[in-house]
Amino acid sequence: MNMNKKISNIVLSIVIISLFVGCKSNKDEEIFNGEIQYFDDSRAIVKKVVAKPVTMANGIPTGMIAAYDSLLICWNPRRDDFFNLINLDTGEEIGSFCKKGQGPQEATSVNCIYQLFKKESDLCTFLWDYNQSRLFLWNISQSVESGKTVYDTIISYDKNRYFFLFYQPENFLFVNRPSDILNREEATTPFYEKRTINTKEIIQNYRIYKNVSLRKNDASELEYSFYTWDVMKPDGSKIAQAMRHLPQINILDTHTGNLVGYRMNNGTDFSFLERDADIKSMTVYYFNIHADNNYIYATYWGKEMWNDRIGDELPHFNMIHVFDWSGKPLYKLITDRSFLRIWLEPVRNRLYTIDPNKDEVYYLDLNELEL
Hints:
Elements: H1 3-22, H2 26-31, E1 35-39, E2 45-49, E3 52-53, E4 64-68, E5 71-75, E6 81-87, E7 93-99, E8 117-119, E9 122-129, E10 134-139, H3 140-146, E11 151-156, E12 165-168, E13 172-177, E14 181-183, E15 186-188, E16 191-196, E17 202-207, E18 213-215, H4 219-225, E19 228-232, E20 238-243, E21 248-253, E22 259-264, E23 283-291, E24 295-304, E25 319-324, E26 329-335, E27 342-345, E28 350-355, E29 360-365, H5 366-369
Parallel strand pairs: 1-22, 2-26
Antiparallel strand pairs: 3-29, 4-5, 5-6, 6-7, 8-9, 9-10, 10-11, 12-13, 13-16, 14-15, 15-18, 16-17, 19-20, 20-21, 21-22, 23-24, 24-25, 25-26, 27-28, 28-29
């Protein structure tokens, strides 16, 4: 084989590989409503990091957590009050809030904290009671100050399934409408709505997928396959989605509606939706996500689903992928403690988590990591 022919074969091979890793598959084109760009995670800088514990008084229940400055907010739907607040400096409980019930100031069920935001100088969040179709604006600052639950607003809202609620000034909500089973063989695809809060007007829809619904032998597999955990960039300009069953992060521009999926090289594509699979044996990639205006932090597993029966110990989750908001993978954080669900606290710049096996709270000091 002469030299020119060798060079031609090498060039042809490079072109074929580039097409394979750089373009969407036919199934991607058919289903996903945005561009897909591939990334090489081997180029990310690896950092081994050490978590710091939070000392808390014995017997304080936690649950899923959020944090702001010295305040730890713990959601536990098994309690009579949905939330208990803890002082991170002293470890002491501040109080319990958001009482469970059917009264005018009570809720039968509410979401965990998806987003914390300031209205004037008060720390607030939105809570959604699906059973009673009511939206609560919980003023956390005034609740702590008064020692009782303070809702700035309680309004009747459409009885739809909402997964994430992200507030934006001028009284807008970006709400995630998750996949919903229509019948045994059909399920809707998730999408976002931009809605007014008081008038409940839909301003804009953001389709993540081209089809309103998809069909499969078992529709519950579709609902499970579309699962993501989402976070809004604090400045409100973008929403990031961590996909559980694809090695992919989606970034949605809330101003333009532009959607890009950033997928790991040689990662599974959307053809996985066509395969019949045991849900429990499906690979779990990204489990949880949080962010500031600079970085996206996503907990990564990359293995089959663990045994999640009640009472069973969860495995050690020690990998966090760090992206910028253009989807570039920058770092892989290898943690000494298990990080499954995370919350980025912006005042002290800490990444918090809770160990569900031991009910212990600890954090990474992001200032020390020099990212």
